[in-house]
């Protein structure tokens, strides 16, 4: 529980209606989208303005109270579990689209706006906001920025960081900084926009963002390629990229994922296929047609037994939506679904998928794989039961092997979900000890009292799926 003087100070700033510390609220905000991690906050606060955020931060700094900024809590790295208690700060009162600037092609938003609202508003204005995490219907831009989220369109269009031009952020001393702006060029000092993007709430609190919008592609076409085995699908991915085509989407589903998705979405996926590629291209019609024909040829050369264009925009949308539902579909199979995002250079996809299959068999666990094949971002997903400790030990061992192999192949422990508390034990595998020391120095400089989402990025030595609670 908060010390009475802290609670009084927060009430003074925000008003009673915007602080909740009932057991119900503390339990509701004790977990996020990550299975097996939970820790209760002392209270939940809902600021209504940047100034509110500043005042709350000053109080928390004074009393050493941790602050966990939280969007919709859909992250998959235990990024918003209040590891050391403190206040969870939610942005449900700061969810406005403040401006669409047609001359500079920018949108200025508050942190609580959902990704879908941004995409839809851009469309309504005749523009395009490409980052499209599968969680976009509920994820917020504050969360997207802090995880640097990617999506199906990442291969061609990049990820969230490529669309953040400027930020307003409240730092750990309560000061407010502005980085970047409505500018295509800005090299005035360190690039704090990029530093804060992907910082997982550990360096500052994003209170406003200027996003880049682009003209929408005039035409988009969708194609489905089916393979007898994953090997051939992976070879097609390499073949497509080697033929110097960057498709808008190049997604991969293995057979068990396809089966689960079909049972869930019923879009007519042929579950007897060994693997599937969902391929999209957009742009001028002539170019799209040429690329689709070239990619079809590559797929057929690599033993696709069927390569079919979606007959209508509706069919194309249904296929994309089905791919987006992969996690939801798999989650119906067992009580716990652990979705990882080990990422490798795309030339190593086949090798990595083979390794995942071998590792799952060795540890006797069920792992399906799907993901953004075009950028090597795979989602090995384990269906398990977090209550079964013996099985969980095998699951953890399997994922450790998978992360180690990803790094060995020149990849990374996470391509888009972030480190959070969950992957903190493996950060040094990717960065090396000196890399971690350098990052800790940044954290120490900007948050010397460690009040900004403590226990994330640099936390434990083991991947411990239990609530830590207690003292910091
Ligand atoms: C079904 C499903 C599908 C998903 N698909 C994808 C996908 O395709 N691609 C992908 O990249 N991810 C995906 N994710 C993961 C997740 O949705 C993303 O990480 C998303 O960006 C999180 O947004 P959120 O609003 O839920 O943020 P939260 O989970 O609430 O927070 C995420 C991080 O941001 C910090 N944060 C939030 N708001 C602020 C703020 N204003 N200031 C400072 N820090 C802040 C939090 O402290 C935390 O560290 C998926 C998750 C689910 C459940």
Describe this structure in words.
The protein is α+β, with helices and mostly antiparallel strands and 472 residues long. The chain has four domains: 87 residues, Uridine Diphospho-n-acetylenolpyruvylglucosamine Reductase, domain 2; 115 residues, Uridine Diphospho-n-acetylenolpyruvylglucosamine Reductase, domain 3 (2-Layer Sandwich); 110 residues, Alpha-Beta Plaits (2-Layer Sandwich), CATH 3.30.70.3450; 87 residues, Alpha-Beta Plaits (2-Layer Sandwich), CATH 3.30.70. It has 15 helices and 16 strands. The protein has a seven-stranded antiparallel β-sheet, with helices on both faces. Strands 5-6-9-7-8 form a five-stranded antiparallel β-sheet. Strands 1-2-4-3 form a four-stranded mixed β-sheet. The chain is globular. The chain binds flavin-adenine dinucleotide (FAD). The site of flavin-adenine dinucleotide has 37 residues, from strand 3, helix 5, strand 9 and helix 12.
Brief characterization of the structure:
By secondary structure, the protein is an alpha+beta fold. The chain has four domains: 87 residues, Uridine Diphospho-n-acetylenolpyruvylglucosamine Reductase, domain 2 (2-Layer Sandwich), CATH 3.30.43; 115 residues, Uridine Diphospho-n-acetylenolpyruvylglucosamine Reductase, domain 3 (2-Layer Sandwich); 110 residues, Alpha-Beta Plaits, CATH 3.30.70.3450; 87 residues, 2-Layer Sandwich (Alpha-Beta Plaits), CATH 3.30.70.2740.
């Amino acid at each position: 529980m908060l010390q009475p003087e802290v609670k009084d100070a927060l009430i003074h700033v925000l008003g009673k209606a915007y602080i909740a510390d009932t057991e119900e609220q503390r339990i509701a905000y004790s977990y996020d989208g990550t299975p097996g991690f939970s820790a209760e906050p002392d209270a939940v606060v809902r600021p209504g303005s940047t100034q509110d955020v500043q005042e709350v931060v000053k109080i928390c700094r004074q009393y050493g109270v941790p602050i966990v900024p939280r969007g919709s809590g859909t992250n998959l790295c235990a990024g918003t579990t209040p590891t050391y208690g403190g206040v969870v700060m939610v942005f449900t009162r700061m969810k406005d689209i403040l401006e669409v600037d047609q001359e500079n092609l920018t949108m200025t938003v508050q942190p609580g706006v959902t990704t879908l609202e941004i995409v839809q508003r851009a469309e309504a204005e005749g523009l395009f906001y490409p980052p499209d995490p599968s969680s976009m219907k509920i994820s917020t831009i504050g969360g997207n920025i802090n995880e640097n989220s990617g999506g199906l369109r990442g291969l061609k269009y990049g990820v969230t960081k490529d669309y953040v031009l400027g930020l307003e952020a409240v730092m750990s001393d309560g000061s407010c900084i502005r980085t970047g702006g409505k500018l295509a060029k800005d090299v005035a000092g360190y690039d704090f926009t990029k530093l804060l993007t992907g910082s997982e709430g550990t360096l500052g609190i994003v209170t406003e963002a200027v996003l880049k919008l682009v003209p929408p592609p005039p035409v988009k076409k969708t194609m489905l390629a089916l393979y007898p085995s994953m090997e051939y699908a992976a070879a097609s991915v390499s073949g497509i990229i080697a033929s110097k085509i960057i498709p808008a989407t190049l997604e991969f589903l293995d057979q068990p994922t396809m089966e689960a998705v079909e049972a869930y979405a019923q879009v007519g996926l042929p579950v007897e296929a060994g693997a599937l590629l969902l391929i999209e291209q957009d742009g001028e019609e002539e170019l799209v047609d040429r690329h689709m024909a070239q990619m079809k040829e590559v797929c057929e050369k690599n033993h696709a037994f069927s390569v079919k264009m979606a007959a209508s925009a509706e069919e194309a949308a249904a296929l994309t939506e089905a791919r987006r539902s992969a996690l939801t579909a798999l989650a119906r199979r067992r009580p716990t679904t652990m979705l990882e995002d080990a990422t490798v250079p795309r030339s190593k996809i086949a090798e990595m998928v083979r390794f995942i299959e071998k590792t799952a068999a060795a540890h006797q666990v069920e792992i399906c794989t799907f993901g953004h094949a075009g950028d090597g971002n795979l989602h090995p997903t384990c269906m398990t039961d977090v209550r079964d400790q013996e099985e969980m030990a095998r699951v953890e061992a399997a994922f450790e092997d998978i992360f180690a192999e990803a790094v060995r192949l020149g990849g990374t422990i996470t391509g888009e979900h972030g480190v959070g508390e969950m992957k903190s034990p493996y950060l040094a595998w990717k960065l090396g000890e000196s890399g971690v020391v350098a990052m800790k120095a940044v954290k120490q400089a900007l948050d010397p009292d460690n009040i900004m989402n403590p226990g994330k990025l640099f936390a434990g030595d083991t991947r411990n799926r239990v609530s830590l609670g207690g003292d910091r």
